[in-house]
Write a structure and sequence with these properties.
This protein folds into two domains: 146 residues, Jelly Rolls; 47 residues. The chain is 47% helix and 19% strand. The longest helix is centred in the C-terminal third of the chain and has 27 residues. The termini are far apart.
Length: 216
């Protein structure tokens, strides 16, 4: 007996297959988790079971203000920004994220309250997402992931604390130099306007800082 899909063009037949039958780009995520704790074959299979791949176009949002952040997002390819838009529409960038980074509104994800943030793609991107309920189930069925995500959360808290202290005790020039040192691979992928927003200065002031550094 012939399957219906065998009578259809390949492209249509592929679209009718179960999602997990379509090969996802999970190897980068597997490699990422292996840095923390080596995964066995069952745990690797769980990644394909619980994570969903999405292709995102440039300027497409994966979260907008007023929505609940329902997915934890790992970036396979591309670049994103997370920002707050004030009453005047001015953007205040909180985070940039590229390949092998996570992005999401942690507060909204855990509290299930509406987010005050936007997450927007700066490039055509490929991401892997997991829903909160699936992440909790993943922790129960495969406790190793619970240990890994605990470390990720601790690292995020340390990073947030460091940035708060830096904003209190550092000059704009010092913040810019630190940004240069920590994220040199971002400069060809984000604009000066976005960097200025992240540093909490105007683009004009950032330009002045860059000229000063270049001539010193």
């Amino acid at each position: 007996m012939l399957l219906v899909s065998s009578l259809l063009p390949a492209g249509i037949a592929d679209s009718l297959r179960p999602y997990n039958a379509i090969k996802m780009k999970t190897q980068p995520l597997i490699d990422y988790f292996n840095i923390f704790l080596p995964l066995d074959e069952e745990e690797k299979s769980a990644i394909e079971e619980f994570f969903i791949e999405r292709k995102i176009k440039r300027r497409q949002f994966i979260l907008q203000q007023g929505e609940v952040c329902r997915q934890n997002t790992f970036i396979v390819e591309g670049c994103f920004k997370m920002y707050f838009a004030d009453d005047k529409g001015k953007e205040h960038n909180l985070q940039f994220a590229i390949e092998n980074w996570w992005i999401g509104d942690i507060g909204s994800f855990h509290s299930e309250e509406p987010s005050q943030l936007h997450i927007e793609a700066l490039e055509n991107s490929v991401i892997l997402q997991i829903k909160k309920e699936d992440q909790l189930l993943l922790f129960v069925e495969h406790p190793k992931f619970n240990r890994i995500f605990r470390v990720l959360t601790e690292n995020a808290l340390v990073s947030a604390q460091r940035r708060i202290l830096q904003n209190i005790g550092s000059t704009a020039e010092e913040r810019y130099l630190d940004f240069l040192q920590r994220y040199p691979y971002l400069f060809n992928r984000i604009s000066n306007v976005q960097i200025a927003s992240y540093l909490g200065v105007t683009p004009e002031f950032l330009s002045t800082i860059r000229k000063k550094i270049a001539t010193s």
